[in-house]
Specification:
The complex is a heterodimer of chains A (about 400) and B (about 300).
Chain A: H1 3-28, H2 31-41, H3 44-64, H4 77-100, H5 108-123, H6 134-156, H7 161-181, H8 213-235, H9 238-248, H10 250-255, H11 260-286, H12 296-309, H13 314-330, H14 338-352, H15 368-376
Helix pairs in contact in A: 3-8, 4-8, 4-11, 4-12, 4-13, 5-6, 5-7, 5-11, 6-11, 8-11, 9-11, 12-13, 12-14
Chain B: H1 13-18, H2 22-36, E1 49-60, E2 63-74, E3 78-82, H3 89-96, E4 104-109, E5 112-113, H4 119-125, E6 127-129, H5 142-151, H6 158-162, H7 166-185, H8 201-214, E7 219-223, H9 231-246, E8 250-254, H10 258-264, E9 267-272, E10 275-280, H11 282-287, H12 289-296
Parallel strand pairs in B: 3-8, 3-9, 6-7, 7-8
Antiparallel strand pairs in B: 1-2, 1-4, 4-5, 9-10
The chains are: A mainly alpha (about 400), B alpha/beta (about 300).
Chain lengths: ~400, ~300
């Protein structure tokens, strides 16, 4: 081991130890329960009053560049933050498929790749196609990947569990191999100078240059917020309930009138669209697309982000995405061991906290909070433990 | 069954219920009944045929689970389906709810064959069921479970939900109120906010019925709803099944417990080895020699050709 590796290792261990200790103390003091209660007791408006400053801090992080968190001099910090945000967005999309609807998708990188190629084909001078402004490629990428999602989903979503996982794994590889083999997609040579959003800095350079991570980061955070809002809307509707019902018991769901196939396909299409959106953001920031970035391990990293953060919890998977992207940049000397580190982390997590970092389930009723308060005078059970509802001695049955 | 367990003093209709006078409670129950069965005329006369099985045969390889079984269920009645273990009762259920397609024969709901309708379409047409081994959505709260059932009648599209169009709001509000009324009707409203997997067994059984009722079925199929219940709980369930019928639903009941079946059903169909061996009023079934033979066996010296 080199001294750099040792320093990084020690730093990482210290960071993890501090986080675990804080988490433990937090739980021990029952503060986690009280925090949840406190948060749930707030009205929507009050919650936003807390969220807005929090979001402001998150948005400004690359500018603040906090000392211990910074990845410099190894990697430009704003660029790191952009990658973290990108992974968070990917995790958010994959969470719809894996976390909500319970469809194990091992080929999610395929959709990411399609999105990236859409951006490249329509903006790079290396492409034969007519050019459009970069920002238009974002919705276009969503539509195209959604189409791919439906094309892949229609024949395969009749499969369940492991079989679906294998087919999606194949899909991811098919996309990568097509990119390698089809001449118009230019394989390893790829596309240079992928477009970017308009805007110039004071010194005349492009605002969204690929060396300038901050605007890209802020753009991505903005997109995450919109997606979060829309996905939240779906979650607290018959669509979100249908997804969770399918995840819990597909047969029973169908018997209760849920059109299972239709809603699985929607989950797949919506997940694909978010994957494509993040792919085109990636292409824009890196400004270069070839076939090298879209391999199976990347798919597995995406999935690890979802599982690590808390499958089914949209805030959790954002955190998971951040962590997965952040660690290799922060501890550059250990970057080559990242799969080992994530592997060990996941094993440990599955033993001590199988529900992921933020494991609480999500609300599934619109205005459900108010409804529960009005109807039975207490909030619904979100945490996974059953201590809330210690069996009362009087309850027979 | 236990009384409503204590709840926190602050607000909520469950807490209110305990402080009601007799008259107020009756008025409240009428309200609940109205929400549970909004579009039905209470106390439907036992009338025309709702569901009909015509020569339904189910074959699994060489095994004949149902051998040209025919019977019909009339609107507003409680029909019992009984038989010894392995007689084909649950297979019959599955053939009616679209889990299996009959090898031959037809199932007709309101004179229209179910044909190749998918399971969720059959639910849409008005058949709902519970499961012999409870199959709730464990991670959802009791209320959410019931709302999933109510969703079967909802029209909100994915786009409507995404953008929270007015229909979404209206349906959500109605669904929550109706689901809560159903939970109250089943006597489990006090645990509406708990995850289904954390509910006591008896609550889970009743939650399944509430979820099935939420799909607004014409025919409610209960697959051994009293399994694992003690006598007092069975009595309560009997009352509940009668109440469900009185609200205008038609009930098909698979049950092993003879006291419950005899006590609550209007008519009984008996299956043995996939064949219908008897059909009639509970009193007739009780004295039917073929049924007694099926359940108790016949002494060797006696002739067994009494099967009708």
């Amino acid at each position: 081991m080199t001294s750099d590796e040792i320093i990084d290792l020690v730093e990482m261990v210290v960071l993890v130890a501090v986080l675990v200790a804080v988490g433990k103390l937090f739980q021990r003091s029952k503060a986690s329960g009280r925090l949840g209660e406190w948060w749930n007791s707030k009205s929507r408006v009050e919650q936003w009053a807390w969220l807005v400053p929090l979001i402001a801090v998150v948005v400004l992080i690359p500018v603040i560049n906090p000392p211990f968190l910074t990845t410099e001099p190894g990697t430009n910090f704003p660029i790191t933050m952009f990658n973290c945000a990108l992974y968070a967005l990917v995790a958010l999309g994959l969470n719809v498929v894996v976390g909500q609807a319970g469809l194990l998708d091992l080929g999610y990188v395929g959709f990411f790749a399609v999105g990236a190629y859409v951006a490249a084909l329509f903006t790079s001078p290396d492409s034969q196609l007519s050019k459009i402004p970069y920002l238009w490629t974002l919705p276009l990428a969503m539509v195209v990947t959604m189409f791919f999602g439906v094309v892949l989903g229609t024949p395969t979503l009749r499969l369940r569990g492991d079989y679906l996982a294998i087919v999606t794994l194949g899909f991811g590889e098919i996309v990568r191999l097509l990119a390698t083999l089809m001449p118009p997609l230019k394989g390893n040579v790829g596309f240079q100078d992928v477009g970017h959003p308009p805007g110039t800095k004071a010194d005349g350079g492009a605002l969204f240059a690929n060396t300038n991570g901050t605007p890209w980061y802020m753009l991505t955070i903005g997109i995450i917020l919109i997606v979060l809002l829309l996905v939240g809307n779906l979650e607290r509707s018959r669509v979100g309930r249908a997804w969770v019902a399918i995840r819990e018991d597909e047969d029973a769901a169908e018997m209760m009138g849920v059109p299972v196939f239709k809603f699985k396909l929607w989950a797949f299409a919506i997940g694909a669209a978010i994957g494509g959106l993040s792919g085109s953001l990636f292409a824009g920031q890196v400004s270069f697309v070839n076939n090298q970035k879209f391999d199976v391990p990347t798919s597995v990293l995406f999935l690890a982000a979802v599982v690590l953060g808390g499958s089914g919890n949209k805030v959790g998977v954002l955190l998971g995405g951040f962590v997965i992207a952040y660690i290799p940049f922060r501890f550059t000397a250990l970057a080559s061991y990242k799969y080992l580190i994530f592997g060990v982390a996941l094993v440990v997590l599955m033993i001590f906290r199988p529900q992921g970092l933020l494991g609480a389930r999500q609300r599934l009723l619109a205005r459900g909070r108010q409804a529960y308060q009005r109807l039975i005078g207490r909030p619904e059970q979100l945490s996974s433990d059953s201590s809330l509802v210690a069996e009362k001695a009087g309850d027979s049955a | 069954m236990s009384d409503t367990p204590e709840v926190e003093p602050e607000g909520g209709i469950v807490a209110e219920l305990e402080h009601m006078t007799e008259a107020e409670r009756a008025a409240h129950e009428a309200e609940v009944a109205e929400a549970v069965a909004p579009d039905r005329e209470i106390a439907v006369e036992v009338g025309d045929t709702l569901l009909e099985l015509r020569d339904v045969t189910m074959r699994f390889g060489g095994l004949v689970a149902m051998d040209s079984v025919s019977f019909s269920i009339k609107r507003g009645e409680i029909l019992g389906l009984i038989g010894p273990n392995g007689a084909g009762k649950t297979t019959c259920f599955n053939a009616m709810t679209g889990v299996y397609r009959p090898t031959s024969g037809q199932v007709l709901l309101e004179d229209r064959p179910l044909g190749r309708a998918k399971r969720h379409q059959i639910t849409h047409r008005g058949i709902a069921r519970t499961f012999q081994n409870i199959r709730l959505f464990g991670e959802m709260t009791a209320l959410e479970n019931v709302v999933v059932g109510a969703d079967a009648r909802h029209q909100t599209s994915v786009v409507g939900a995404l953008l929270r169009l007015p229909r979404h709001h209206r349906e959500e509000r109605e669904a929550i109120d109706r689901a809560m009324a159903l939970l109250e009707f089943m006597g489990i409203a006090d645990r509406a906010a708990d995850k289904a997997k954390n509910l006591p067994y008896g609550y889970q059984r009743r939650l399944e019925i509430a979820r099935a009722l939420a799909t607004e079925p014409k025919l409610l199929c209960l697959d051994e709803p009293a399994a694992g219940f003690n006598p007092a709980e069975k009595d309560e369930l009997m009352g509940l099944i009668r109440k469900i019928r009185d609200d205008g639903y038609t009930v098909l009941l698979i049950e092993h417990d003879m006291r419950l079946v005899m006590g609550v059903t209007d008519r009984i169909v008996v299956l043995e080895f996939g064949k219908k061996i008897a059909e009639g009023l509970p009193a007739e079934i009780r004295d039917n020699p073929a049924v007694i033979a099926a359940y108790l066996g016949v002494p060797d010296e006696e002739d067994t050709d009494g099967a009708a």
